[in-house]
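Run: sequence + flavin-adenine dinucleotide -> complex structure.
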Amino acid sequence: MGSGHDVVVVGAGLAGLQAAISLREAGVDVLVLEAAERVGGRIRSLEGVNGVEEAGAVNIGDGYARLISHVKAAGLEREPVAYSMREHAVVVDGHVGTALDWAGNPGNPLSGEERAVPPALLVAGALAKNNPLGGPRDWMAPEAERWDVPLTDYLHSVGLSGEAVALADRAGTFETLGGTSALAMLRAVQRASRHSPQTSNIVGGNARLPESMAARLGGSVRVRSAVTAVRESGDLMVVELADGEQITAGHVIVAVPFSVLRAWSALPALPGVVSRLIDELPYPALTKYHLVARRPFWEEDGLPHAMWTTSRIQRLLPWRLAADGPSALAVWVTGREARVLDGLDEREQRDIVLGELGRVRPAAVGAVEITRIVSWGREPWAGGAWAMPLPGQMAALAAAVEADTGRVQFAGEHLSVEDSGMEGALESGERAAGRVLARLGSG
Ligand SMILES: Cc1cc2nc3c(=O)[nH]c(=O)nc-3n(C[C@H](O)[C@H](O)[C@H](O)COP(=O)(O)OP(=O)(O)OC[C@H]3O[C@@H](n4cnc5c(N)ncnc54)[C@H](O)[C@@H]3O)c2cc1C
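>> structure
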């Protein structure tokens, strides 16, 4: 059995790295075990055709206080993210237009005031209007349960028409609107409202941040070390690795998505709310097709580069637009359609994505090629893009965040309270470390 540590942290994403740094700063002996051959998890920067492209997390909100303080401490720089959905092309059942002329688009099935709202903005706009959540912790209050209903029901209750809901359901960051908790999305909109729309990313790639955090931990981060079980043995925890190695620790922080925990062979006994969420919390599939545009096809058709469509390719977002020379973009496919594409071989996926892109945007024919396919649904150490609670799961999530799970604590974006994404992951890591420190102090 491997030599013992005060604490073993499983997962070197932002949550696990933050937990380990907080513990190390308090003088605790900590070992981080990471399954992949790199740190960073759902932050993944790729070397693109003419610079870095983000396959995972892109946008750093200006209120991401923990993250920005790590960026400064590491001597890294941030730069503004180039794209936004403020201007975008809209393609509905073959009818092509822009967000600005959407009201006059013959494919627009809506009437009245709704007709002027581009489909990509229908849900966020309806949720932002009179959001019942005023503060970042309001989602955890018992009164909030009344909004923990299918998002479709909530949208109808605030006056969105059936046609508008059906249209918005065709592409977005969710699996389906009906299968998503309205409270989860109200929480997301409340969180986003605390940051300005202008986001940033790290010069040289967002992955430089987790790398710099791992460097602070020196030799205490082990990559290629997949954990398959955590068991209790007397006063100790035993962490089992895929190659059969066993490492003992006084405490364990499990900072991996619940989706990947489903494959573990053992965890100590947990409160019912936690084990149910481990089994059931959904993580939508999301597959990104990174593209290089050899010529600026958007200048030929006069449409914005960003695009929201009802076609199989759903959304196109630019990453870097060069005045001359190649530009980088990515097609983002989420949910059921992503799972269908994930099931095909790479050649079929390329044919479908390029075929659909050419169909909805003929100027792109012959102008783009796919440089990389990144499937978060098929990524074994992620099991999907992010936690997206079902209707009725939010009270359990609040209880799971509060639950004291003893010598095994959990962290990760799925257990964030006040912020989402990368900042939420850091917040959860800090909380898990604080709980372990409290136990070590009282032990
Ligand atoms: C496409 C995409 C776009 C995004 N865009 C944004 C954005 O713009 N802004 C934003 O703030 N957030 C964004 N996010 C979300 C953000 O990436 C995550 O919220 C955050 O990085 C999660 O950190 P984490 O530490 O909780 O989990 P992860 O980053 O998933 O870290 C978990 C780690 O655990 C490891 N692991 C898993 N299983 C095991 C095991 N058995 N043994 C050992 N190690 C294991 C994994 O390899 C991984 O390194 C995006 C995510 C995706 C996928």
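>> summary
The chain has a mean pLDDT of 94. The pocket of flavin-adenine dinucleotide is lined by residues 10-16, 33-36, 41-43, 56-59, 226-227, 255-257, 260, 286, 376, 381-382, 385-386, 412-413, 421-422, 425 (CB under 6 Å).
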